[in-house]
């Protein structure tokens, strides 16, 4: 059989499977054998194979994105670095240039970099999946971006700008003590170790869904490329690759939104199907802490959660500190907040498209999507698969989101380890060459060490919830330390340290028990209903029945 015949056959299988005239009847009127044996002899494995339209053009688009990232990193690591070295011979310029770009970065690229790194691959896929599974409750957290941005504008950013620090935890050392500085920096490093493998797993999962290549095959590739351009390019390479990657993210989402809406028959059809499926919902008005999305958890908890990211988070503040003035920082904050809100709204819209597309044939229940986080890649293959290059564009977007977040965090780890752990403990001055070697070694070490932890993440369920849960253990105490330092000058080091340790222990106990309860099935959040009545391919009915019990 020729390649053309094979491609034609796959397209016919996919079109038959997603026919608008299903042959199965309702779950309540027939037995399980009838449901799982539709008229068309198409099974999940055949359909999954037929949808993998990742061809030469898609690979070209994907590889082109990676090459651009590598080229940008190489430029700032070799060409621009030589210019900077020739123009500036001052002591300490190596660390200053590598970590904060000499404090001469421009507003637009830094704002785009913040958007790209803030919306990781976890958020890009996880937000849409969240809307599909639980409805629009999570979308209301976007309101907290405005609240947290205002607080950052007036409270935190002026402090960091006036001090001109590279590591935010240097402030803790100045405000409280060296011991508190180490404690806070250790919390950040711990958070990074937890988060890095989660961020790596998401793009690898997407690539596996569309290409058939295993997660653990692509993971080392992601790490190698990201580590390379972060290591050689420093913050300048990170910011400019982030800016390019943010454009890729916006472009891919817009294309998916337009084509997905067109295939459904318009916005009204999409909206009605989501309304009928109960997806257009609001946070519950309750004080019950076991409710997944309540008004208190979304607006109060969400505000503090976003405030940590926009006000004291090392990667965020490090980009702000790469700008030349407080006025430039505030301009960047405004553009960043607006751009981030738009990007999140696009993710919400994609989630609504996903449910409207699969409103009568849930691919998670049938096994067409092996995990919830494979849902959106599946949607991309169905909606954009007939256009060469567009699936590659979306995969590039997911990788862009992940790479931007990972590279930023790796660069920030270099700043924190150097400024908070190494320099204070070295009595003699460190040469420029030694500083350069140390910073790049830190990036490589953290990048490579996260590969093995991907195996752990793979077994722990829905990545958006996992990411938020694990980081919440540390976000609260970290925000508390900074808020106390800035707003409560009468509080001393012992009180803050005791409160922070208590908070970490308490949050660890709550989050670990919540995850254990989720894994063992002793506590489950109620999912919104799904249907398989419109499925026109064979699937394991037992899988569907088990999914309804979760």
TrEMBL record:
GO terms for biological process: sodium ion transport. The keyword Ubl conjugation does not apply. It is found in: Cell membrane. It comes from the Eukaryota. One of its GO terms (cellular component) is plasma membrane. Keywords: Cell membrane, Ion transport, Membrane, Sodium, Sodium transport, Transmembrane, Transmembrane helix, Transport. One of its GO terms (molecular function) is symporter activity. Pfam families: SSF (PF00474). The chain crosses the membrane at residues 59-79, 107-126, 138-161, 182-201, 213-235, 247-271, 291-312, 333-358, 393-417, 437-457, 472-491. It is a multi-pass membrane protein. The keyword Transport applies. Belongs to the sodium:solute symporter (SSF) (TC 2.A.21) family. This is (Mediterranean fruit fly) hypothetical protein.
């Amino acid at each position: 059989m020729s390649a053309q015949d094979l491609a034609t056959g796959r397209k016919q299988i996919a079109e038959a499977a997603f026919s608008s005239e299903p042959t199965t009847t309702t779950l309540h009127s027939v037995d399980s054998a009838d449901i799982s044996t539709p008229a068309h002899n198409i099974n999940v494995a055949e359909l999954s194979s037929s949808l993998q339209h990742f061809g030469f053009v898609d690979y070209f688009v994907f590889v082109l994105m990676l090459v651009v990232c590598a080229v940008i990193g190489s430029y700032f690591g070799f060409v621009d670095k030589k210019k900077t070295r020739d123009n500036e011979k001052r002591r300490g310029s190596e660390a200053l240039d590598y970590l904060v770009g000499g404090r001469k970065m421009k507003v637009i690229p830094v704002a785009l970099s913040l958007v790209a790194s803030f919306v990781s691959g976890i958020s890009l896929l996880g937000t849409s999946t969240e809307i599909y599974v639980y409805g629009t409750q999570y979308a209301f957290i976007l309101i907290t971006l405005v609240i947290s941005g205002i607080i950052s504008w007036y409270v935190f950013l002026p402090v960091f700008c006036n001090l001109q620090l590279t590591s935010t935890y240097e402030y803790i050392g100045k405000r409280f003590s060296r011991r508190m500085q180490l404690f806070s920096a250790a919390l950040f490093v711990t958070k990074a170790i937890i988060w890095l493998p989660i961020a790596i797993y998401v793009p690898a999962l997407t690539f596996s869904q569309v290409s058939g290549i295993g997660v653990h095959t692509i993971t080392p590739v992601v790490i190698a490329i990201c580590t390379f351009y972060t290591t050689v390019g420093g913050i300048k390479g990170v910011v400019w690759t982030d800016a390019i990657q943010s454009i890729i993210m916006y472009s891919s989402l817009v294309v998916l939104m337009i084509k997905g809406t067109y295939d459904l028959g318009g916005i009204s059809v999409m909206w009605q199907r989501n309304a009928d499926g109960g997806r257009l919902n609001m946070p519950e008005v309750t004080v019950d802490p076991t409710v997944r999305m309540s008004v208190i958890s979304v607006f109060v908890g969400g505000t503090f959660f976003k405030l940590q990211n926009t006000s004291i988070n090392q990667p965020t503040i490090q980009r702000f500190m790469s700008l030349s003035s407080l006025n430039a920082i505030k301009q960047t904050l405004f553009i960043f907040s607006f751009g981030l809100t738009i990007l999140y709204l696009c993710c919400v819209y994609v989630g609504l498209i996903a449910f409207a597309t699969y409103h009568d044939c849930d691919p998670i229940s049938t096994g067409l999507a092996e995990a919830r986080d494979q849902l959106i890649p599946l949607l991309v293959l169905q909606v954009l698969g007939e256009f060469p290059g567009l699936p590659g564009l979306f995969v590039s977007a997911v990788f862009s989101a992940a790479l931007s977040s990972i590279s930023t965090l790796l660069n920030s780890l270099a700043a924190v380890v150097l400024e908070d752990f190494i320099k204070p403990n070295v009595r003699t001055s460190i040469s420029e060459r030694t500083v350069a070697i140390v910073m790049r070694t830190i990036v490589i070490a953290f990048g490579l060490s996260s590969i093995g932890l991907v195996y752990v993440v793979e077994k722990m369920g829905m990545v958006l919830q996992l990411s938020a849960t694990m980081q919440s253990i540390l976000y609260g105490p970290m925000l508390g330390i900074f808020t106390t330092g800035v707003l409560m000058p009468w509080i001393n080091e012992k009180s803050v340290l005791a409160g922070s340790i208590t908070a970490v222990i308490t949050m660890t106990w709550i989050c670990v028990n919540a995850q254990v309860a989720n894994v063992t099935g002793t506590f489950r959040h109620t999912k919104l209903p799904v249907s398989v009545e419109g499925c026109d391919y064979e699937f394991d009915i037992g899988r569907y029945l088990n999914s309804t019990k979760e």
